[in-house]
Specification:
Aspartate Aminotransferase, domain 2; transaminase activity; glutamate-1-semialdehyde 2,1-aminomutase activity; alpha/beta; 14 helices; 429 residues; Aspartate Aminotransferase, domain 1; isomerase; aminotransferase; binds 4'-deoxy-4'-aminopyridoxal-5'-phosphate
Length: 429
């Protein structure tokens, strides 16, 4: 009997390219039929066939409180009842802007948008408009949404003028994007030494979460800050994923670095489409209507999205919230590591706050090149075997995982029990 998941996926492919509205959902990397979700509550999601899963994707990060948190749902319902969109200022969006500026020391002003891509794309344009320069630096393996200038293939560590990694991106656009290796301070110093006065901005995931999880070396982030200041380049921390995920003051608070601009998304919308970019007043004031850099959005600052986000931000600021989240995440990764070791499977794992990475490699990677050394076949087997046991992990070896406040000891222990059985089977393969 074909499952409803399978039927839906077959039909979806007829009407939606690849059957999905965002590529990684298609299980292209791990193979098999994607799971169609119908409902979520807390740490659990149910698919169209009624199968329950403990969810470690959390909509790729936003669901830090778990699914369908009663207070978030209530805020959404109450706000929606007053109208869905006005295309005019609202008090709620001011409250969100003020909240973000209060929480992040380097954020004097902020503008709300509807996705992470819009936030990074706008921040890059603003940095270019502010500096009057064209070139930007990004790092191998970092993803910053799908704006043309950021979809640039990684070079091999050294200074490389990028080739586009997507059809439809003009070579001329990609040529302004330089790709360096993550955590490689020496390459950064060398590049700034050569062309520092041409660099408009450096954009970085302060904890990389789009090549699995790669933690930053503190000296790397420090070098970034110093070089940008020295050369008048705008330092953009892309905290779309890490923002209010790794800690109460994002990754910048954790590592004690104040960027010039910060981009946010995911958690600040609590599961609704919301992004933001903000930072130094002097830079932000270059935006229209005050300055020459144009940026706009019909649904920007949408009240329903803002209501979900404000409620989420209020709840995550509760004392001890992040300590508990980080402890639960550590319990998960320590348990996974111990289970793998018990069965002699080559494996490592690490976490930063409520984000984690699992690697079929002896030690956690520190760069894209090292991430590529992970055993992808082993991951794919692990993913499907865990899925069969009702554990939903990110369907790719190159994505970070997420724990929510709704993941209690019970869910984590069930996950570890499943992993013990799966690793046991793997050691016999
Ligand atoms: N930046 C980072 C660091 C991200 O992780 C993502 C999405 N995963 C984006 C930008 C793009 O955000 P969105 O998918 O909301 O456009």
């Amino acid at each position: 009997m074909t499952s409803r998941n399978q039927q839906l996926f077959e039909k979806s492919q007829q009407f939606i390219p690849g059957g999905v509205n965002s590529p990684v959902r298609a299980f292209g990397s791990v193979g098999g039929t994607p799971v169609f979700f119908k409902r979520g509550a807390g740490a659990t999601v149910w698919d169209e066939d009624g199968q329950a899963y403990i969810d470690y994707v959390g909509s790729w990060g936003p669901m830090i409180l778990g699914h369908a948190h009663p207070e978030v749902i209530k805020a959404v319902q109450e706000t929606a009842a007053n109208g869905l969109s006005f295309g005019a200022p609202t008090a709620l969006e001011l409250e969100m802007a003020e909240t973000l500026c209060m929480l992040l020391p380097g954020m004097d002003q902020v503008r709300l948008v509807s996705s992470g891509t819009e936030a990074t794309m706008s921040a890059i344009r603003l940095a270019r408009g502010y500096t009057g320069r064209s070139k930007i630096i990004k790092f191998e393996g970092c993803y910053h949404g799908h704006a043309d200038s950021l979809l640039v293939k990684a070079g091999s560590g050294a200074l490389t003028f990028g080739q586009p990694s997507s059809g439809g991106v003009p070579a001329e656009t990609a040529a302004h994007t330089l790709v360096l290796a993550y955590n490689d301070s020496a390459a950064l110093v060398e590049t700034f030494g050569k062309i520092g006065n041409e660099i408009a901005a450096v954009i970085v995931e302060p904890v990389a979460g789009n090549m699995n999880l790669v933690a930053p070396k503190p000296e790397f982030l420090k070098a970034l800050r110093e070089l940008c200041t020295q050369h008048g380049s705008v330092l953009i921390f892309d905290e779309v994923m890490t923002g209010f995920r790794v800690g109460p003051k994002c990754a910048q608070g954790m590592f004690g670095i104040v960027p010039d601009l910060t981009t946010l998304g995911k958690v600040i919308g609590g599961g609704m489409p919301l992004g933001a970019f903000g930072g130094r007043r002097e830079i932000m004031q270059k935006l229209a209507p005050l300055g020459p850099v144009y940026q706009a959005g019909t649904l920007s600052g949408n009240p329903v999205a803002v209501a979900a986000g404000l409620t989420t931000l209020r709840l995550v600021q509760a004392p001890g919230f992040y300590d508990k989240l980080a402890a639960a995440t550590r319990k998960l990764i320590d348990g996974l590591t111990a289970a793998a070791r018990k069965h002699g499977v080559i494996f490592s794992a690490q976490s930063v706050g409520g984000m984690f990475g699992v690697y079929f490699r002896a030690t956690p990677p520190t760069s894209y090149a090292e991430v590529m050394e992970c055993d992808k076949t082993a991951f794919n087997h692990f993913f499907h075997a865990m899925l069969e046991k009702g554990i939903y992990l990110a369907p790719s070896a190159f994505e970070a995982g997420f724990v929510s406040a709704a993941h209690t000891d019970l869910e984590i222990e069930k996950t570890l029990q499943a992993a013990d059985e799966v690793f046991g089977g793997m050691s016999k393969r």
